[in-house]
């Protein structure tokens, strides 16, 4: 019974370190990669020393209390290394604890019962070789299971209720796996060494599978919610385009008529000052008209609508665009890219108090075989990023922040890319689309 209870502290600590580092590696991080691994190595050394000194080779209530404290210890790296909330940290810590417990349990079961009697495997080096091999197998299998949901891991936020449910599940799994150490007469227990090993590993395996299944369901729900949100964004931008299309057409017609009226007035005015005034009005009209004649009717409509809004709110919007390069885009996709990009730029510019810095610039040009779309705007408050995407400044993050994601999804639909970044006080959205 003693050999079962006392898995070497070195391996218990090492497997739990691998467990939380496995999940930390796929979550958004606060530190650079080398800083994360350097500090985590110090964590491994410290927690191994503490585990061997205070937890290994103990039993009963003392062992369970100190092991619970050890589980809380493994929460610290998630909070320290990862740019996630408390609920997320608790959730992934619980998953890491059960996955690690399964790994060290199955590894020590096979080593103690079946591998250690083999020639050359009973010593320290044989033990190390087998435990390292098993750890590699367990965490490689975990990665294969998790790899299809790494994007969701980086973006999805865990609700407190989900974190609490996961912790309660982990506690139940731990208690059920340890019943044989308290009493061999209780249900789901045994007094046979091989059976106790097998029961413990089986419970941990079932618990690991259950928590993975729960996580995959959460990821699927998140992906479905994201798809619905992106579709709503597309529909909203398209609806805005259709609503503006008629208004912009009327405005353009009025501008066209006004030009003719100015020409007529010019022929009947002899006052130089009045003529100068008419010249100024005509230049303003000409600049507006030239700015929104890109060669693509959809783009012209979007730019005109946004230009009118910018003019009304003291924002300078300039554009140098060859709209014909984007003729292969559908109306909805054009609305998704430029509607969302300009809406985000306008929202950022409106927060700037200095009128001279309320600037937005749009460029559409050819770069070899690609159409390059660049939307740049000045910003007041430094944008924050998570997973390469800007974090919405709105309080309701579950229902906002999909504008840039919609642009990225639209670009990928055409085999292109969309990236964002900041430099010298400018926020830039860069979209590259293969020209069809």
Architecture blueprint of SSEs:
Layout lengths: L1 H4 L3 H16 L8 H22 L5 H14 L1 H7 L4 H30 L8 H23 L3 H6 L4 H18 L1 H4 L10 H75 L4 H20 L5 H16 L3 E6 L9 H19 L9 E9 L2 E9 L6 E2 L2 E2 L12 H11 L3 E7 L2 E9 L2
Parallel strand pairs: 1-2
Antiparallel strand pairs: 2-3, 3-7, 4-5, 6-7
Sheet with the most strands: spatial strand order: 1-2-3-7-6
Q: What's the main sheet like? A: 5 strands, mixed
DSSP strand content: 5-15%
Indicate the structural class.
Answer: alpha+beta
How many individual β-strands? Answer: 7
Describe this structure in words.
This protein has 436 residues and is α+β, with helices and mostly antiparallel strands. It has two domains: 2-228, no CATH class; 293-436, Histidine kinase-like ATPase, C-terminal domain (Heat Shock Protein 90), CATH 3.30.565.10. The chain has helices at 2-5, 9-24, 33-54, 60-73, 75-81, 86-115, 124-146, 150-155, 160-177, 179-182, 193-267, 272-291, 297-312, 331-349, 403-413, and strands at 316-321, 359-367, 370-378, 385-386, 389-390, 417-423, 426-434. The strands form two sheets. A five-stranded mixed β-sheet has the order 1-2-3-7-6. Strands 4-5 form a two-stranded antiparallel ribbon. A hairpin with a 2-residue loop joins β6 and β7 (426-434). The protein is elongated and about 110 Å long. The model is unreliable at 1-5 (pLDDT under 50).
